[in-house]
Amino acid sequence: MKRSYFTVKPYQLVAILSIGTIGLWAYSAKPLLDDGKLPDENRFTKVVLAEKLNEPLEMAILPDERVLLVERHGDVRLYSPTTKQLKTIATIPVSTKYKDKEGHETEAEDGLLGVNIDPNFAKNHWVYLYYSPAGDEQKNILTRYELRGDELVLSSKKVLLDVVTQREQCCHTGGSIDWDRDGNLYLSTGDNTSPRATLYAPIDERPDRGPWDAQKSSANTNDLRGKILRIHPEPDGTYTIPEGNLFPKGTPKTRPEIYTMGHRNPYRISVDKRTGFVYWGDVGPDAGTDSVGVGPTAEDEYNQAKKPGNFGWPYFVGDNKAYNDLDFSTNKSGAKFDPAHPVNNSPNNTGLQSLPPAMPALIAYTAAETKKFPLMGSGGRSAMAGPTYYKDDFNGAKRPFPDYYNGKVFMYEWMRDMILAVNFDSKGDMTNMERFLPNMPFSHPIDMAFGPNGDLYVLEYGTGWFLKNDDSRLVKIEFNAGNRKPMVQIASSQKAGAVPLKVNLSSTGTKDFDGDAMTYQWKIFSRTGSGPTAGQPTVLTEPNPTFTFQKPGQYKAILTVTDAHGLSDSREVDIMAGNQPPVVTLNVQKGNKSFYFPGEPIAYQVNVTDKEDGSLANGRIAARQVLVRANYQDEASAQNTSEAASGHKFSEATYLGTGKILMDKSDCKACHFTDKKSVGPSFIDVAKRYKSDANAVASLSNKIIKGGGGVWGDAIMTAHPQLSSPDAGEIVKYILTLSDKKIASPTLPTQGIYTPEKDKQGDLVLQASYKDRGANGLPAQTNEQAVVLRNPLVAMGTSNVQSKGITLFKMGTQPYPLVIVMAAGTHVQFNKLDLTGIRTMEFAVAVPKAQLSAVGGRIEIRADSPTGQLLGQTDDIVPSESKDSADMFKPSMAKVTIKPITGQHDVYFVFQNEKAGKAPLFVPVTVQFSN
Hints:
Elements: H1 10-20, H2 24-29, E1 44-51, E2 56-61, E3 67-71, E4 75-80, E5 85-91, E6 97-99, E7 105-107, E8 112-117, H3 121-124, E9 126-131, E10 139-148, E11 151-164, E12 174-179, E13 185-189, E14 227-233, E15 239-240, E16 258-261, E17 266-271, E18 278-282, E19 300-305, E20 309-310, E21 316-317, E22 321-322, E23 324-327, E24 332-336, E25 363-365, E26 383-388, E27 409-413, E28 418-424, E29 430-435, E30 445-450, E31 456-460, E32 473-479, E33 491-492, E34 496-497, E35 501-506, E36 518-526, E37 538-540, E38 546-549, E39 553-563, E40 568-577, E41 583-588, E42 602-610, E43 614-615, E44 626-633, H4 635-644, H5 657-665, H6 683-689, H7 696-706, E45 708-709, E46 716-717, H8 725-737, E47 751-754, E48 763-771, E49 782-789, E50 793-795, E51 801-802, E52 806-809, E53 818-821, E54 826-834, E55 840-846, H9 849-852, E56 858-863, E57 869-873, H10 885-888, E58 892-897, E59 904-912, E60 923-930
């Protein structure tokens, strides 16, 4: 049996091993930090101000700490810190639809897009909105209104600027507004070009194909789209042109409002008020791979403009990676565009043909992990830029951020739910970046701004596109430089049981970050509000008390911990007295307890006992009431299932298999929901459409990885090159089950034989559960148990422990890291493997001499310690002399017959070569266990 679910392509190993042997490794693996101390993350608190918003896009923080925000469908809303209420103060009539190829109306990105307040707002009360006005005229407009108290005075409207757009087949709006210290207004606009004809550069010059040609907008010096504009608003509602824009006023075939050009969708911009530098995230195209003769893999960009310039779209992406001049009428590829001398000769261009040189991106990253910026991770992409923090701007503020963040620019990733703090030197050159609050969850942050009190406000759009999301929020992040309230941990020895129910309550893990003494108060209530005795709450003051519940009921125990300064926090736990949870056991009756072997039967038996219901053995519980299933999951998910099964909660989602787990880890739900349309079709609709398509798994897997469109109107599937073909296939297989709502594998008998399927990937999870009938008026309880058997083909990167001298390298497209053996005498360790019946182990090992200078060696198999019993060893594994990447990384196979040994042992694979000196040995990829 030769199977592999852990594959490494030669070009990937070239990159891995080259990086591993030169100084770039240290730079790539971990971002540098400032000399100042990074503040403890527990000093920051996320405070939710409002929830369940309807597509919020941008906000402005008023001088009195009120928050003005706009929602795409036209609502202007105002949050008051006094009343703690968010109310709608005006509704602007906007266009939010576009017409598809058949003339049907489809949700667009248009609407109420941007908001900001005048720098002199305290005196003039002016608010600026950028939106797509309702009606047949296709344009977006920059307007000014007066905010009088809590009223947006609609009659005060003045239109400063029109941006002519197309609403057919379209998208990419930009719409962000900001100011510099001189009172100049900056407005971002998108390329207003459909990406749905190509995943690469939209430069279709055929007649009547203007909607698919970004040369008409982003690369057009005489068009306001695909730009960041800079104007100076005047009191009468007009504007003037400040000195120093990209094209001097009066230059033929140019618009003087243009500050920067060559943008695809600069959705959120920010101006550093001290330096005048402009920052933005440019949301990139969708190509998942390089295409010879067409162009490079898609990248998103974070950009910085120290001065006006051209940033290259649609001719370049990222670090000026060039597209080819593709003729869409003949599909013939022309020369690559020249970043030093870009030329726009499109018939849709009304501006200059010779354009300013293209500026490279500050930070660029693909959907897969990017070597230069590994901090960005992998997944969907939507780069956005936030404010620059200067502590001097918050003198006297209640909660200013610490000095550590002084001068840092906050950038954020909408799809990946991360915030970055980026540092620059005195010249404005980037020196490092790091995650800001990496353990704090966000739900698609779409705008950020500091308020007068020093708090960082974050507007969260929520999970799905074009939806009123339950997880859409207005929040603020407060920094606490002084005393911190205790962090409370709470646990109960039992959460359910028959009466009398004796429970040990625990506060173990509770701590005060400032080292203060703490006092404890437990209050025990019934869930109806009365206490367990005499109708009054029971109060206990020990840190870890014991309490016995005498009467059936549902209770909660609340622990309040108070520090020496009077700050407190509370946690609670629910306890059910009067219904004993069932006991479920699942036993593999014979054979190996660590591994399954495809095609070899596994005998198992399930037993269930319940204090109130009886048992399987006495017949009071029927076998049909016990749920038994087998599924295959990736190793991490299988281990999580095993741990969860030791508790009392059972979820049918546990049985959805690898595809559901991989989907939950991905960004799929940003564009799709199970049963309703978002920016993409619902999963159920996809399943119904492809239900009878025998090629669906292959075709849809390919589309997930490479991207594409055309099946569901004009919606485009973003590429996901970080997914392997097997993983994409598992996701598709899960989706296809939804056509008839088959979300679980078939049930098994409570006793019998299960034969593992051949060619299955991942670990086998046998799982049994029983839901009791309830007792004493209390609801039913469920318990379960799982047995996880590992796939006998094991990736070395899944080892539990690695010694010094072992380097792990995680590629974005691989499920597990690679093990690179950098020195002899090193080892990896796998904990508690059952070796009963294991007769051979076969290793796949790459020994690339030309790249790694690998010298080869042998692998020793030892039990219980690196110097423990020698069970066997490979012959010498010699280097590959090939200089062809297709051959030099081809793994050698080394098979070992081991000494018989029974029971569980920690297994050590020790890597040896007495002549190696300090040279690397090899790259052991997998080990196959066989019986």
